[in-house]
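Posting this for the archive.
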Amino acid sequence: MSEFQDADSVLEPTLQNVVDQTSLKWIFVGGKGGVGKTTCSCSLAVQLAAVREKVLVISTDPAHNLSDAFRQKFSKTPSLVNGFTNLYAMEVDPNPDLSEVEGLGGMEGEVGFLADISTSIPGIDEAMSFAEVMKQVQSFDYSCIVFDTAPTGHTLRLLQFPSTLEKGLNKLMSLKDSFGGMVSQVSRMVAPGGEDMVDQLMGKVEQLKRVVEEVNAQFRNDELTTFVCVCIPEFLSLYETERLIQELAKFEIDSRNIVINQVIFPEEVGTSRLLAARVRMQQKYLDQFYDLYEDFHIVKLPLLDEEVRGPDAIRNFSVNLLTPYHPQPRPEDGQPLPAAAGSNSLLEELRRTVEEQRKRIAELEAQLAAAKK
């Protein structure tokens, strides 16, 4: 056991291993909702942009946050992030128009009958949109792509898109084999030359399927792909992270880094009993993370006093991914943190709130004692 711990001790509590692995092409950042995935993915993309030629960060969450994080409007096509020369961002359309997706477009009159058949397959719209995104990504030749994923359940669906496409294609093939004659007749009534619609549609879907299958093979290559799990030190997040890592193992996707966000460090607690209780609660789950994931790089990020928004704020925060965060020493009772120490104003506000409540309780107790006399 000691030998294993000695080997584990060399694992740095940073994401430096991700930045240094120049062979990585696909980097997924995911976890439970509300743990700070977007901030972490943007921060990681900023660090990668410092050492890579061309980096793209993609939001696959229907409730996009990249625009809010960078304070810049993004769309379904890659855009250069303000303040950078080689960092691009895009947000996947959560409700794609299948007539604009290459797998279903490009033929006269096909957007009625056959598109309706295609959209009847559960999940096919998202899968086709994802396939089209993959084609765009490959055509722009980015050196690295960071995925800011949706909460865990949606992320697992995203990783299942290749099989979804395959099932959809097989269903279309079965429809063609079973009702080929009838489909051709109806197609001729819908649009001129409709008898060739099925073959053209199948050819394009097969083309998209090949693209996604190629990407899927790359996802399973730990030299090209890794998944960074983001969480907070609470029970539900710990449970969700364990579920995610187990599912990633089933998909054969590499995962060796965990970012624990919103950590309150004991040095910053001061005299607050509330913060001290939160630290004890968090420490219980931090210990469990370290016990469960001894062979992972575990990065701890602090609870901040304000949102991380804008290129400068993200750039400053991203340093914590490569350099372990060191909190300021705890002040003496009644002494505030030095202004130059970069104290956490949110913690200071919580301390002030606690002190105000204590004073209020003391006043009420004094009034109660006076009323009893």
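Confidence is low (pLDDT under 50) at residues 1-8, 102-114, 337-343. The two ends are 67 Å apart (CA to CA).
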